[in-house]
Amino acid sequence: MANIAMTGILEKMTGKDKDYRYMATSDLLNELNKDNFKADADLEIKLSNIIIQQLDDVAGDVSGLAVKCLAPLVKKVSEPRVVEMTNKLCEKLLKEKDQHRDIASIAMKAIVAEVSTQSLAQSILVSILPQLIKGITAPGMSTEIKCECLDILCDVLHKFGNLMATDHELLLGALLSQLSSNQASVRKKTVSCIASLASSLSDDLLAKATVEVVQNLRNKGMKSEMTRTNIQMIGALSRAVGYRFGPHLADTVPVLINYCTSASENDEELREYSLQALESFLLRCPRDISSYCDEILHLNLEYLSYDPNFTDNMEEDTDDETLEEEEDDESANEYTDDEDVSWKVRRAAAKCLAALIVSRPEMLTKLYEEACPKLIERFKEREENVKMDVFSTFTELLQQTGNVTKGQIDINEQSPRWLLKQEVPKIVRSINRQLREKSIKTKVGAFSVLKELVVVLPDCLADQIGSLIPGIEKALSDKSSTSNLKIEALIFTRLVLASHSPSVFHPYIQALSSPVLSAVAERYYKVTAEALRVCGELVRVVRPNVEGIGFDFKPYVQPIYKAIMSRLTNQDQDQEVKECAISCMGLLVSTFGDNLNAELPVCLPVLVDRMGNEITRLTAVKAFAVIASSPLRIDLSCVLDQVIAELTAFLRKANRPLRQATLGTLNSLIVAYGDKIGPSAYEVIIVELATLISDSDLHMTALALELCCTLMADRSSPVVGLAVRNKVLPQALTLIKSSLLQGQALLALQNFFASLVYSANTSFDALLDSLLSSAKPSPQSGGVAKQALYSIAQCVAVLCLAAGDEKCSSTVQMLTEILKHDSSTNSAKQHLALLCLGEIGRRKDLSSHAHIENIVIESFQSPFEEIKSAASYALGNIAVGNLFKYLPFILDQIDNQQKKQYLLLHSLKEVIVRQSVDKAEFQDSSVEKILNLLFNHCESEEEGVRNVVAECLGKIALIEPAKLVPALKVRTTSPAAFTRATVVIAVKYSVVERPEKIDGILYPEISSFLMLIKDHDRHVRRAAVLALSTFAHNKPNLIKGLLPELLPLLYDQTVIKKELIRTVDLGPFKHIVDDGLELRKAAFECVDTLLDSCLDQVNPSSFIVPYLKSGLDDHYDVKMPCHLILSKLADKCPSAVLAVLDSLVDHLQKTINFKPKQDAVKQEVDRNEDMIRSALRTIASLHRISGGDCSLKFKNLTNEISKTPALWDKYCSIRNE
């Protein structure tokens, strides 16, 4: 049936009437697009002939439809037909008249785009390549034919370049010859053709092409337009092949720099192309370009202000602003020349400088000294497009400063932040000039620079605020301002208000508030929303504290209130505006509530109303939290009951953020207004709370328990205590058995039990009993998790302390009885008793209970490991309660009891760690004793003992740094390797995140510890690597100066060392042991940490190859951190990764295709799965780098993944994470 219909269509397609032909072609297109369309051999021939014929139809719309028919046709007919069609089209291309040639070229491109199978591509290439080459190189071909052929060839090469390796040389020869064509259009298309070809060329052919182009450039007698083409060619090659161009930089860079400086004055394009090529080198060959960076920097700075036709006679930095304004206008009018293209050179220099900034974090200090002043000076650029590029280059400099100096506190005189701080007055002066310009675009650019400046250096504008206010005012109130400019100005204002101290702004509030408040009334919602956010900051600034001392805020209360209220009551507006108005009103009421008594009954009901609306309820709930926690105790009587009822209902909602916010708000309301809320409301809340307590959402649980404690704090009502006991207590006792319980939720649970004892109607004994019995193993679930026992013990301790001394001693009595009598039978009971004693002892001195220490130490004899460790924990914690009595006892025991040493050291560790956290002091005599004892155990054969000793030493060092740092340093040269390793690990334990007095004492001595990374013993080297890692994480500033020396040594630890691999003969088979594995893993993890904190010191290019590359092919434990490092580098230093992407692909490919052996155990299979996911996660990160397409190997890898269903599913799920 279909074929009869086709015959009718085909007849009409050749009819005389063009409308018939059009309709018939349209019908054919519909038929071809149907999925079930099939054609026999006969019909195929007819179809392909008639469509090719239709291409030449005199009616343009018919031939246009015929081209559209080609795409589905290529997929539906056999290979020979497609080849035949392409041949016919090639003939048309080379012989026909102009209009037919155009349509043939379009048709040809349509076919190439649709070819999807390799075999078809090969057949087509065999037939069309010779014809295309003929069209390009044969003498007598017109420019138009050459251009069309080059266009098509470019598409073909881009899609199938790697299928024609045999023809590469021939193609390259043909194309290179066209670079010297007299026609500019031919040269231009040839450049993009060679670039498409280059990405699939072998290294030899790439070298051949580069050499020829460089040779052309060295030929001094060449016409300047040819030189320009060759320079463009070099840039295009580098963009196409990325890091593979690296080996040729030595030949090309000097030539380009030479052209830049020696080109004739009117040859601006030559300079522009040279700078663009250098920019491409900086981004794509970071390793090989490093030796030329200084030269390129100076070149950029010279051309940033290159303007030969314009003399700039303005005095730099004059403070006489009025004079300057006039001069500015004059200078703008006095010189205009449409022929002047020197701005292109300045723009190229700015972009090249930006590439240098982005790709060279290690040059930041130098860039501040040399490039920063120049960039600031160039803000006055007269060509607007270039000015925007100067702004964006400067913004890159600021962002790079932010990246490199993240988390650094102290600012020394060499650090980029310090250097930036010195430039702030200059930046502001220069930007202020730009804010007085007429152009909107300029002002938007200027604000975006200021915005970035405040983000990187939050409090840097304190002295400059006054001079910036007029610019902000003008931007917000000028008639010509666009909404885009207003938004930028408002965002900047908000950031400045948020990051500086309020008093700085007080002189300028008058000037600031009126334009901001008028912006609240703007029509465009984004401006309004931003203005409302600024109002929120303004409210804080106007009255930073309740007293409001030093500034009279009253005149501003009413205007701000009216502006916000008009937005709050308005219903028909954008959600963002509604939310901002609600938050802003919350802030306003909580800050100025005492001056808004008349207005509260009007605005509070509106906020309650917004709680009823699904879209705005979350914001309204948060607004009430702000109002409730205001120190002004605002009168909420008109809406309180309604608010409580709404909030209680929200606790049932599925929306998690809403429930969280509701719990916080209820807590604040009950703290502030508990006496005005009836017990009946409390009961309803408690019933809802009980359902929120579970270990599946610990954050929510913590909030719910905190609210419970707040409810019970009001002791007058017995009803509340009863409701809590019936509803919440059972949930709490279930929760305490959870092995996940920790942190905030555990603290909240302890407070909950303490509050229960305080609210008089719950008996202590019943609570204690239920707590202890929750530790009993139940027949269904088996024993209780170890973590749960610790939780129970902490709750018991808090409970006892809350109940008072008498109850506390009776409990201790009972616990010691358990230890005395149940020695062998009930291990769980004993375990819990020991933990409880420890927790109580830590919080309260137990010396009134005679011999308690001996009773605990008896348990060291227990056959069960967990009881031994619980006993050592208990002993240490009891000692914390009374150091004077129990510390000498522990030290004495360590000396005399060889067998119990490890456990006793753990007790000592508990004591020391607690003291270092609580900043307590030891007596001098005990410190001496402890040190002698610890240093004696440094060489212990057992790693466990050495680790405990190291932790003890590190934590004592926090308490007594002046004694310990020298003592540790002396032992770095000890002959015993174990001692050297122990003291380095001790230093690691003494480096904590918060600032400590040890930092200053340790700083000069760090190198004597970390340089043990050169030690001949692997244990010591690993200890040094771990210590370096901790420094990099917690105190990067202390080690910055040592990194140039340490990094090569650290990289060396990532290499597989043959001498550390040994074979163990196990009789039936041999087992290979790699003693260096732990060290390599630690070294890579250390690099990973350094990338976060010391990016400016790590030169990624020298690390990726060879070190990271070998790590990607190492053992499972090493590959994992390497994958993480590669993902991080792809994000932070994409150019360095792109430069060597090809060489990394093989290892990733090998990892994702690895199959475990048939008889592999489940653990091996799972590890391999994790490994594949980790590699895919890295590939996803690499995929996000822009410009990753230039690596063919990587493209093929992603194609392979997309064709393997198992991998593709995993890959997709990872990308959606």
From TrEMBL:
Entry superkingdom: Eukaryota
SUPFAM superfamilies: ARM repeat (SSF48371)
Segments of skewed composition (Acidic residues): 313-338
GO biological process: SCF complex assembly
Coiled-coil zones: none
Region feature Disordered, mapped onto this chain: 310-338
Keywords noted in UniProt: Repeat, Ubl conjugation pathway
Pfam families: TIP120, TPR_CAND1
Domain TATA-binding protein interacting (TIP20), residue spans: 1038-1200
The family this protein is said to belong to: Belongs to the CAND family.
Name listed for the protein in its UniProt record: Cullin-associated NEDD8-dissociated protein 1
Originating species: Rosa chinensis
